[in-house]
Specification:
The protein is α+β, with helices and mostly antiparallel strands. The chain contains 6 helices and 6 strands, in the order αβββαβαααββα. The strands form 2 sheets. Strands 4-3-5-6 form a 4-stranded mixed β-sheet, with helices on one face. The protein has a two-stranded antiparallel ribbon with strand order 1-2. A hairpin with a 5-residue loop joins strand 1 (about 20-25) and strand 2 (about 30). The longest helix is centred in the middle third of the chain and has 12 residues, at about 90-100. It is globular. The N and C termini lie far apart (about 50 Å).
Length: about 170
Amino acid sequence: MAFFSIFSKGSAQEKTSVHDLNYTSIEGETVSLKDFEGKYILFVNVASECGFTPQYEGLETLSEQYRDQLVVLGLPCDQFGGQEPGGSEEIQSFCKVRYGVSFPLSEKITVKGKDQHGIYKWLTTKAENGKSNSTVKWNFQKYLVGPNGEFVDYFYSITKPLSEKITKNFN
């Protein structure tokens, strides 16, 4: 048992690739981030009742404009002001009907705290991503990962999806 504890502790400190992680889609299916190898991934914690919710439009445009190089992944979260109160069907319907969202969405997740989703643990922890520690401050904070699974940068909610800070990576 002591050997297992030492082995587990040592393994947890090894830097992992974001492509080693999975999420559950809004439809309830397990999706491997390996499916997105070779493309940038823009992770965005989204919410339907937030002042930044209109960014869905820019995210959809970004997704369409750079579809050969980029996957936008919306991860609904209700941790900031209770601004994502609905269930999966309601969230999915809202995104499609109101904003024409066609990029992938996950089930509702937790982006900080003790129940933090593994993707956000990787995105916010330098020991995991090899580059930067951060904290998710609000809805529509964006994290960009490169085609080989490398951490590129993060952008606060005020950074619009079509900002040159983001798009310069695809030109």
